[in-house]
Amino acid sequence: RQTLVAQFDSAPMREKLLTKPHLTLSVTAGDGNPKESSPFINNTDNDKGTLYDGKNMALFEEEMDSNPMVSSLLSKLANYTNLTQGVREHEEADEEEGAKKKTVKSPQMGTFIGVYLPCLQNILGVILFLRMTWIVGTAGILEAFIIVAMCCSCTMLTAISMSAIATNGVVPAGGSYYMISRSLGPEFGGAVGLCFYLGTTFAGAMYILGTIEILLTYIVPSAAIFKAEDKADEAEAMLNNMRVYGTCCLTLMALVVFVGVKYVNKLALVFLACVVLSILAIYAGVIKTIFEPPDFPVCLLGNRTLKNHGFDKCLKTDIIDNVTVTTKLWSLFCQSSDLNSTCDEYFNLNNVTEVQGIPGLTSGVISENMWSSYGPSDMLVEKNMASVAASDPTLDLNLPYVVNDIATFFTLLVGIYFPSVTGIMAGSNRSGDLRDAQRSIPIGTILAIATTTIIYLSCVVLFGACIEGVVLRDKFGDSVKRNLVIGTLSWPSPWVIVIGSFFSCCGAGLQSLTGAPRLLQAIARDGIVPFLEVFGHGKANGEPTWALLLTAMICETGILIASLDAVAPILSMFFLMCYLFVNLACALQTLLRTPNWRPRFKYYHWALSFLGMSLCLALMFISSWYYALVAMLIASCIYKYIEYRGAEKEWGDGIRGLSLNAARYALIRLEEAPPHTKNWRPQLLVLLNLDSELRVKHPRLLNFTTQLKAGKGLTIVGSVLKGTYLAKETEAKKAEQNIKTAMSAEKTKGFCHVVVSSNLRDGISHLIQSAGLGGMKHNTVLMAWPGTWKQSNDPLSWKNFIETVRETTAAHQALLVAKNVDNFPQQERLGEGTIDVWWIVHDGGMLMLLPFLLRQHKVWRKCKMRIFTVAQMDDNSIQMKKDLQMFLYHLRLDAEVEVVEMHDSDISAFTYEKTLVMEQRSQMLKQMQLSRTEREREAQLIHDKNTASHAALNDKPDATPERVHMTWTKEKLFTERNRNREPNASMGVRDLFNMKPNQSNVRRMHTAVKLNEVVVNKSQGAQLVLLNMPGPPKSQGGDENYMEFLEVLLEGLNRVLLVRGGGREVITIYS
Question: What chemistry does it catalyse, as a reaction equation (predicted)?
Answer without folding.
Answer: K(+)(in) + chloride(in) = K(+)(out) + chloride(out)
